[in-house]
Amino acid sequence: MHLDSKNHARLTCEVESTIKVIGGRWKVLIIRELMTVKRFGELLRALPGITQKMLTQQLRELEDDGIVRRQVYPQIPPKVEYELTPLGETLKPLLYAMHEWGVKYLQQKNQ
Fold first, then answer.
1. Computed over its alpha carbons, how large is the radius of gyration of the chain?
2. Alpha-carbon span 20 to 27, nearest angstrom
3. How far apart are the first and last CA of the chain?
4. Distance between CA atoms of residues 49 and 54, nearest Å
5. Alpha-carbon span 98 to 104, nearest angstrom
6. What is the pLDDT of residues 18-56, one digit of tens each?
7. 84, exposed or middle or buried, with CB in 10 Å at 0-12, 13-18, 19+?
8. Phi and psi for 110 in degrees, rounded to 5?
9. Domain ranges of the chain
10. pLDDT at residue 50, as a whole number
11. Under CATH, which architecture does the 12-109 domain have?
12. Is Nucleotide-binding given among the entry's keywords (predicted)?
């Protein structure tokens, strides 16, 4: 974090980089679901409203960013599983913190 000319904390590109990797409507929810290994169909059912095309796209982006690993098993019919990589696992504390913040936010909002 850097200070701007008025001595206020200014978020830098590190935060922007994080948002770029996990931002958007679906990625954090996909990561949440991948706290345990899942197959494509399980992910699709766990995320109401996401299309097959969007899930495929988001999983590919997360895979390209090193967050998700796609494991294909050589069998018929093909079996494909998705899981967090070690780098993806490091996002768990961030998701837990987001959960805690959301709980507090909803409690205050509903007072």
1. 17
2. 10
3. 34
4. 10
5. 10
6. 888 998 899 999 999 999 999 999 999 999 999 999 999
7. buried
8. -95, 10
9. 12-109
10. 97
11. Orthogonal Bundle (1.10)
12. no
What tokens appear for 104 in the block? 């507090």
Residue 65 token pair:
């960013």
Distance (Å, whole) CA 71 – CA 9: 42
The pLDDT assigned to 11 comes to 56
CA distance 51 to 101: 28
What is the C-alpha to C-alpha distance for residues 43 and 34, in angstroms, rounded to an integer? 8
Separation of CA 98 from chain center: 12
Tracing tokens 């830098």 back to the chain, one arrives at 12
* Helix ranges, the chain (H): 13-22, 27-33, 40-46, 52-64, 86-89, 92-109
